[in-house]
Amino acid sequence: MTTPLLEVQDLTIAFPTPGGGSAEVVSELGFALPPGGSLGIVGESGSGKSMTSLAVMGLLPKGARLAGRIRLAGEDIAGLPDRRMRAIRGDRIAMVFQDPLSSLNPYYAVGFQIEEAYRAHRPRATRREARRVAVEAMERVHIPDAARRAGHYPHQFSGGMRQRVMIAIALSTEPDLLIADEPTTALDVTVQAQILALLREIRRDTGTGLVLITHDLAVVSEMVDDVVVMRAGRCVEHAPVARLFSDPQHAYTRALLDAVPRLDDEVGELRTVRAAAPDTPREGER
Amino acid sequence: MTDTAPLLTARGLVREFTLRGRAGAFGRRPVLRAVDGVDLDLYPGETLALVGESGSGKSTTARLAARLLDTSAGTVEFEGEDVTRRTGAALHRFRSGVQVVFQDPYSSLNPRHTVERIVTAPLTYQGREVPGGARAFTRALLERVGLDPDHSTRYPAQFSGGQAQRIGIARALAVGPKVVICDEAVSALDVSVQAQVINLLRRLQREEGLSYLFIAHDLAVVRQLADRVAVMHQGKVVESGDRDAVFGAPEHEYTRTLLAAVPRIRPEWEAARRARQREREATA
């Protein structure tokens, strides 16, 4: 058996509460991703999916307590000192977030920002080499007229093009693992389709591993090999994509799938998650 | 449906925004035409969905139809009367008939006001008396939208997103409107909560005969709620018709592109899951 690219074991993340106690936002989570594999983490807000991705990146907010193991190609990176984590983050693991506008610096040309990200991990690279890498990365994500566009500022790009720039930054160091946290949630549906196609193409061409975090079941069904369904910090179901969608085992997964409105479906009362999984008391709601 | 008169009608709606920046030739500033000649008819008891991507002009159209924004050209009629230039008491009368539910429940509810004050505010603004007193009125309203009547004295922050949106719906219903304009009213909600709010909107329509002008970018949600659909692109309605016609046999190129872009769970997986579900329900 080959060593997994990413292996998460018994991951628990907790935050101290004002009363002196602590609140667990992720509990005993475990999954593994083979080299070049793809995994989707789906859940509703508060399920702990984004905290999980931040933990893998070593970007948990201050005060968070982390237990368990996170192994990257066999090496435990959970709780690694900042300095060492910085060397891994953006190099072997890269991340794409939901909102490209707040991830880009409005004062610098996008080409320069790709160069900077590259040079941070390749200190010996020359300006000229970094410039070449930046333009190549922009070409790889199909930004037309890349050499000229490299000199443009973030506000001169549309939302979809900005997300392409973010993906170009992520790819510039040829990472082993790409973590995409709701990468298309803020985009229009036609632009979303283009970005998802781009991510598929990149995986096919480079063999980069992908962890896709999303609330959108249809998106995850089109993108990954395996799916983890999270709820209230726990994994409720972990299965290959075909099995999860054709034969879901857990009542919550079934309820979630029932609640998704569909394009090509008979129209009727939508089943609600509460009806199938009565153990979600929500104060005052009936 | 076409033999009755429409409740709300828009004819040739145009809205232009003057862009900031340097004036061009002859001192003219650049103008953006966000809505460019839109016609709409909303009939009693139906849901008309206005769909499109960001920048298509659908939300601006909703605001023009709700008289929250003045038109640059065109007319809005409610129950056969031109309301395009109404002000003061006449505008209040229009607002008693047409209400709006917004996307983000938290930013559209005053955080410092109790639920009771929030949902009775439209009546207060219009100088109308609250029938049966504020307390009893609020309790009855909360009941209608599926909230606990005992929570009338709470503040918006004490509710979940889905509950807060129910408060937004309760506020819209307070004046007894015939038309509710829902501007991305379920877009910010988690899928399970979204399903509940969609079901609530349906129930209210069934029980009270409301008409909805439903603005949304999510085509799957629209498929579940709308009777008729109008597709907007670059300020214009490019296609409109009965839901099944628009979704089943779209005529305009843009509608086809939009529908093709929606991510889908594979039909064979869906079929297998449904078959298993039916089996389970049969043996249960």
From TrEMBL, chain A:
<keyword id="KW-0547">Nucleotide-binding</keyword>
<keyword id="KW-0472">Membrane</keyword>
<feature type="domain" description="ABC transporter">
    <location>
        <begin position="6"/>
        <end position="257"/>
    </location>
</feature>
<dbReference type="GO" id="GO:0015833">
    <property type="term" value="P:peptide transport"/>
</dbReference>
<dbReference type="InterPro" id="IPR003593">
    <property type="entry name" value="AAA+_ATPase"/>
</dbReference>
<keyword id="KW-0067">ATP-binding</keyword>
<dbReference type="GO" id="GO:0016887">
    <property type="term" value="F:ATP hydrolysis activity"/>
</dbReference>
<dbReference type="GO" id="GO:0005524">
    <property type="term" value="F:ATP binding"/>
</dbReference>
<dbReference type="InterPro" id="IPR027417">
    <property type="entry name" value="P-loop_NTPase"/>
</dbReference>
<dbReference type="InterPro" id="IPR017871">
    <property type="entry name" value="ABC_transporter-like_CS"/>
</dbReference>
<dbReference type="GO" id="GO:0005886">
    <property type="term" value="C:plasma membrane"/>
</dbReference>
<keyword id="KW-1003">Cell membrane</keyword>
<dbReference type="InterPro" id="IPR050388">
    <property type="entry name" value="ABC_Ni/Peptide_Import"/>
</dbReference>
<comment type="similarity">
    <text>Belongs to the ABC transporter superfamily.</text>
</comment>
<keyword id="KW-0813">Transport</keyword>
<protein>
    <submittedName>
        <fullName>ABC transporter ATP-binding protein</fullName>
    </submittedName>
</protein>
<dbReference type="InterPro" id="IPR003439">
    <property type="entry name" value="ABC_transporter-like_ATP-bd"/>
</dbReference>
<dbReference type="InterPro" id="IPR013563">
    <property type="entry name" value="Oligopep_ABC_C"/>
</dbReference>
<dbReference type="Pfam" id="PF08352">
    <property type="entry name" value="oligo_HPY"/>
</dbReference>
<dbReference type="Pfam" id="PF00005">
    <property type="entry name" value="ABC_tran"/>
</dbReference>
Automatic annotation (TrEMBL), chain B:
<dbReference type="Pfam" id="PF00005">
    <property type="entry name" value="ABC_tran"/>
</dbReference>
<keyword id="KW-0067">ATP-binding</keyword>
<keyword id="KW-0813">Transport</keyword>
<feature type="domain" description="ABC transporter">
    <location>
        <begin position="14"/>
        <end position="259"/>
    </location>
</feature>
<dbReference type="Pfam" id="PF08352">
    <property type="entry name" value="oligo_HPY"/>
</dbReference>
<keyword id="KW-0547">Nucleotide-binding</keyword>
<dbReference type="InterPro" id="IPR017871">
    <property type="entry name" value="ABC_transporter-like_CS"/>
</dbReference>
<dbReference type="InterPro" id="IPR050319">
    <property type="entry name" value="ABC_transp_ATP-bind"/>
</dbReference>
<dbReference type="GO" id="GO:0055085">
    <property type="term" value="P:transmembrane transport"/>
</dbReference>
<dbReference type="GO" id="GO:0016887">
    <property type="term" value="F:ATP hydrolysis activity"/>
</dbReference>
<dbReference type="GO" id="GO:0015833">
    <property type="term" value="P:peptide transport"/>
</dbReference>
<comment type="similarity">
    <text>Belongs to the ABC transporter superfamily.</text>
</comment>
<protein>
    <submittedName>
        <fullName>ABC transporter ATP-binding protein</fullName>
    </submittedName>
</protein>
<dbReference type="InterPro" id="IPR013563">
    <property type="entry name" value="Oligopep_ABC_C"/>
</dbReference>
<dbReference type="InterPro" id="IPR003593">
    <property type="entry name" value="AAA+_ATPase"/>
</dbReference>
<dbReference type="InterPro" id="IPR003439">
    <property type="entry name" value="ABC_transporter-like_ATP-bd"/>
</dbReference>
<dbReference type="InterPro" id="IPR027417">
    <property type="entry name" value="P-loop_NTPase"/>
</dbReference>
<dbReference type="GO" id="GO:0005524">
    <property type="term" value="F:ATP binding"/>
</dbReference>
